Amino acid sequence: MEIRLLYISQSGNTRAFVQRLTTFAAEQGQVTFTPVEISDATPDDFETTPYYAFVPTYLDGGNGIDNGVKETLTNALGEYLDYGNNGRHILGVIGSGNKNFNIQYTLTANRYADKYNVPMLADFELRGMPQDVTRIYDILLQHLTDKNLL
């Protein structure tokens, strides 16, 4: 089965992680992950099959707790997910960020999960470690199995 992994990556961290995850999955042979990078240049399109969203956190103001939040750089992904019925095909969210930012670490991913009423399945820091690739692969495989998609 092919599952799309929609993501946005400004610093290259999320891109690098998704590429490693895609390669690892291909080596395992149980599921094919197809990475799809979303940017401001991505044309609006209709998602017609289940997918996962990889959402980094980039903030420019506010702390996300008591004085609001001003998200930046993930807007193109949010707009793409909002296009047509794209949001109804999302299976779950994987978040990333920098743990130095404490509660803000996966703030954007958590907000996406809440907005689309899907689980925040996993997280990784920056580019992730090799064990994060294996861990998140296992989580996604189990989630797909639980959803009877494998």
Automatic annotation (TrEMBL):
InterPro entries membership: Flavoprotein-like_sf, RNR_NrdI
Gene3D superfamilies noted in UniProt: 3.40.50.360
Stored Pfam families: Flavodoxin_NdrI (PF07972)
GO molecular function, one term: FMN binding
SUPFAM superfamilies from the UniProt entry: Flavoproteins
Descriptive protein name: Putative nrdI protein
Organism whose genome encodes this protein: Weissella ceti
Phylogenetic placement of the source organism: Bacteria, Bacillati, Bacillota, Bacilli, Lactobacillales
